[in-house]
Each structure stands twice: as structure tokens, then as C-alpha cells.
Amino acid sequence: MTTGAPDGEVARRIDELRSLVAYHNDRYHRLDDPEIPDADFDALVRELRALEATQPAPATPARRTATSQVGAPPSALFAPVVHPVPMMSLDNAFGPEELRAWGERLVRQVPAPVAFACELKIDGLALSLVYEHGRLVRAATRGDGVTGEDVTANVATIAAIPGVLAGAPSDLPELLEVRGEAYMSLDAFRALNERQAAAGLKAFANPRNAAAGSLRQKDATVTAGRELSFWAYQVGEVLPGAGGRIPDALSRTHSGALAWLADRGLPVNPERRVVASLEEALAFCRHWEEHRHDLAYEIDGAVVKVDDLALQRRLGATAHAPRWAIAYKFPPEERSTSLLDIRVSIGRTGRATPFAVLAPVLVGGSTVSLATLHNEDQVRAKDLRPGDTVVVRKAGDVIPEVVRPVPDDAHRARRPWTFPSTCPSCGAPLVRLPGESDTFCTNLDCPAQRVARIAHFASRPAMDIEGLGEQRVELLVSRGILADVADLYAFTAETFAGIEGFADVSIANLLAAIDASRSRPLHRLLVGLGIRHLGPAGSLAMARELGSLEAIAGAGEERLAAIDGVGPVIASSVAAWFSSPVNQALVDRLAGAGLTLTEPGWSGRDGTDGTDPEGAGGTDPTATGADPQGGVWRGRSIVVTGTLPGMTRDEAEAAVLARGGRSPGSVSARTWAVVAGESPGAAKITRARELGIPVVDADGFAAMLTTGELPDRVEGAPSEPPGS
After folding, report:
1. Assigned domain for 77 exists
2. What is the pTM of this model?
3. Are 295 and 109 in contact (CB under 8 A)?
4. Which are the catalytic amino acids?
């Protein structure tokens, strides 16, 4: 077809080609059963690209195809997207007994028999796709579950995701949210790292990180070249279409909904199964645990869901996870490799942490060449010596760990490793503090400390300056451009003139991210300052209590220690930090740069009455004071200790804060309840029992998050907060 054809004929051919490309792409990527040779498919794509180039405007995301309909690059910062239905995480089962225990809890709540839908747990990045009348209008990352990032332009380059759903528009919902996982196949991952190596760039650690990094690019053309794929695994929000009805398949069973999505052209993983019992579900999990490496992509477990959607609604959810689904996590994998060396890195507080340099080894589907060794005592306890053959484990597919050496004759002949006496970065003495396991560099001007402090300030939990990672910080520090965090706010485009790796777009994006960080709430700034012992929970507690950086700096150790969630150790560290003339000068410069030095929503009281200001917290959904239970725990202190299944300590504490409560690190007479997970602090449990404070387990805490009240069976249950 020539570009001189009538407009209507061109439009019809474009629509025809889009359908053909989508069909053959589905045959190739989803069904693994292509009908035409690759060369014929490539010819269709080339013709489609040529015809689309004749159109007066770029194709919209709803009309995108495998030709990478990128359009204009997105703005410097991704726009926030609030999910109408929160994108929750899943509780985990780490073995057959935990899966059976989950099933037993279900049986107590729903009638038997229960059918289960079993799927693979793809190791990728969760996405929400919104279709209006069958056309893709928005794509967003999960983010924190409540607010994600608008990545529509980038998702438009993923050929596996249809821009227009198959079927008559009259048969489609007015609005359909499809949830799924963006991932990178193993072949695409290997090809990407080969291109990285050829260009002299750093290799990606694993397919999941490569997929996430590729999707969250400012320039969608980068995403287009990364060969991302997608599996749909859930239907989210649905609004009725023509005739005021929702398709029956979307309202009856989960498996039926997935089949309906597949018929509409969305890629749905074929390795799924509906079973009639939990033992059959366990057999599915065990099969894929044994055959996980037979797949062309990474999985880190299997997911078991109640198939009946009415039962799903009846079971509901806890504060963070649905009760009707669970992730069966595969056990960590172990491999042996050579321990080439043991070196020491210097962190932002000067802490010297030993780490292992390993001969690269594939563990859990990704290549591991470095692993933390934590501290001097850990190296000694494991008796690790450079040159050893060691066992490496990647627990949870996240943090590589050196488990032990192979105790052969060669190991015994090697000299034990000793901790260095001087800093590898600046040469200053390394000192181990009395009674502590950590060793520190004593030079506050150590270049490694400076880099770590600035990188921490720019990190997501702190000021969230995207594009300012540790490598860039190290480059700018080495150039003499960046000495401390206040220098960031004097940057201009001219600052980066002649520096390799800083093009006009990346400079503009970085400057925009730095400017946006000025509006971060006070508690995020406190985290960014990197004060020893002060974490997110303590920062939020101080910001809510005192309201301004000036008030915190002038409060004194005793006043700070009286704040729930702070205590004497944090208070001493914070008071000492603000008493330093160097730090005072830094704060003055940050104030002059226009950073937010107050907590948004603080009531304006000076905090001397010890009350908790209402409505504090800025825009972080876990720390806003936005209270789904109407302030049900306001004035109450809930201490969390031990490991809770499916929830990190920070998430548990954030759930308490979101309901108006406090989550201090120690038990006192004012504590209302203690939440005890696995391996809780013995001293905290003992103290709670001495004071008659209720101690609840993980299930009890889940019930508390739903009802706002203590469960019926606890170790003592006062009706009002002690000390209130």
C-alpha cells in the first residue's frame, strides 16, 4: 500500500495491521506457537510503522502497537496515580504447613468445598492497566499500594499489551482495570546485559531489577528497547458497560475472569490450574518449585487463590493483604563458589562493613558476585578466609548471604582474615566502640562517608531525588562539585557542563527532581539528614510532636526522649547532631534553599503538653494521619516486636501510625498493646507481662487492623490505654 492512498483506506489498513500484529505477537509470546516466520512478522511491523508515520499526530497509548508508539517523552517526574482499589501485597507461606494453616483458616470462614486457582508468581513489577470502552488510557505502577506512578507512555511500548481490547465495544465494560506483572524474559535479560557490556555499562543484577528499571525510565524510547513482557493476573475495578451490566465472566470466578481477559487479547500465563483441594494446590506449588528453571522467565513462587469471586468478597482483606489468596514462596537456593576477597565498605555514619567478593555464581536465577558479611564477629564466627570455597544463599531472592566455608584442608591452611585497622577510603583509624559489634571510620570528612550521606539523603525513603544514585554522587564528589547535601540546591545546568553522562534531558530531569525535593515534609528531611539511630518511625514521631526543625533542634535531650517512639538513645544522638556547629551551618543552608522545615498539617502547638498534633504527615500514605479507622488508636501506643508474616516491621508500624496511634520501640506503662511476631524481643514480652499489657500474635494484629479493637483472647486487655 502506498502513502498516497485515500485517508480512509490508510486508516483501514492500519487497523488491519494492528490486529494482525497483535494476533501474531500473541501467538509468539503467549502461546509459543507462531503461525508465520519471523521475517513475515517483521515485514508487517515495518509496513505498519511506515503508514503510521504518515498520520498527522503520533498514535495515542490506546492505539499503540508493536512498533513502539512512544510519542513525546514524559515529563521530568512521573505523575501520581491513586488506585481506586488498593493494590495489596500477598501474605506468604514458606512451606506446606503454612499453606495448610492458611487453608484451615479459610475453612472456618467459608463453606466447603472450595476451589482454588493456582498460578505462577512472576518475578517482575506489578502494573495496573485501565481500559475505558476497551481502549488503554492509563498504566500505573503499584507504588505503595495506594498511590503509584503514571507510566502510560512507557507501557505503550510493551508490544504484548494491547492498546485496544478485542471484541465489540458494546460487550466491554465502561471501565476495566487489569492488574498484572511486567517482566523481562531470560533471553531478553541476557541480551540486555550483553549490550550493557559492549557499551561499557554496568550489568543488571537480575531480570526483575532490569524490568523495573526499564519501565521507570523518563525517556520511553529506552523502555521500548528493553523487550519487556506482561502477564495479566487479576481484574481490579470494573464499571458496567452498555446496558448497565458487567460481563458474567468477570463476576463469577477468578479463573473465568482470566479466560475472558485472554479472549480480549491480554496475555494471561498459560501455566495456571483450578483444583478442588488444598493438597492439589500444594502439588502444583511443588511441581513448579522443581521446574522453575524450565521456564523462559523468572518466578519466585506460586499463588493460590479462592476461585469463587463471591467467596473472595466474603473473606475480605486485612490492612495489607487479601485473606483469599496466599503466595507460596520457594525456599532459598544455595550454590558454592570461590571467595576471592573480603573487603570493607564505609557507610554514611562511618560504619565499616565487611563484604565478600565472590566468583560470579547463578543463585536463584541471578548472578551474585558480592555479599554482605555484616560485621567482624560474623566473619570470625563463620571462619571465612579469602580463597575458600563457600556456600552462597540468596534468601527470598533478595539479599545474597555467605552461609559457610567448605572446611577442607586448603581452608585450614589459610590465614584467618583480620579486620583492617585503617579506612580503605581515607586512611583514618578504624575503631570498634566498646560493647558494640560495629567498627567505624573516625574521619567525618571521609570521602566514602560523604558519598554515602548524600546518596542516603537522595534515596526514596528520604528526599526521593530520582537520578541521584550513589554512582552519580561519587562522580560529582570526585569532581569537587558536591561536598554536602546543601550543595545540591545550588546546582544549575551549567554545573554539569562537560561531565560525561549528563545530557540535556538527564540534567533537566535531575534539576527538576532536586527542586521537587524542597517540598518533602519535615519527617522525610529528618530521615535524609542521616542522624545515627534515627529512622523513619522516630523521625515521624518527632515531626508530629514538635512540628518544626527549629523546635526539634532546640528541644534538648530530655524533651526529645519523652516523645513516644524516640527514647533516650535516639534523643541523645539527635541532640548531639544538632549541637554540632557544622550541622547547624548545614541546616541554615538548607533553610536558605527553601526546603520544608515544618510538618505539613501540624496543629501549631509547641508540643509542651505532650499531645500528638492532629493531621500531621505530609503526603506519604503510611504517615499522613489519614486514618481509615477514624482515629481509632489516637493516643494509644502499640509496640511491634518480632517478624510478622507478610508484613515488614515498617509496614506494621505505618499501619499503627495511619490509625492515629504511636509505635515506640520500647514497652512502658503507657503501652496499650504489644504485637508479637516470630522471634519477638524477650525483654519486651517480659516487660509487657509485668505491666499487665495485652500481648497479641500476628492473627490478633490482623484482626485489630480490621476492627480497631483488641481480640477477645489476649494476655490481659485493659479497656482504656494505660497512662492515658
Report:
1. no
2. 0.47
3. no
4. 121
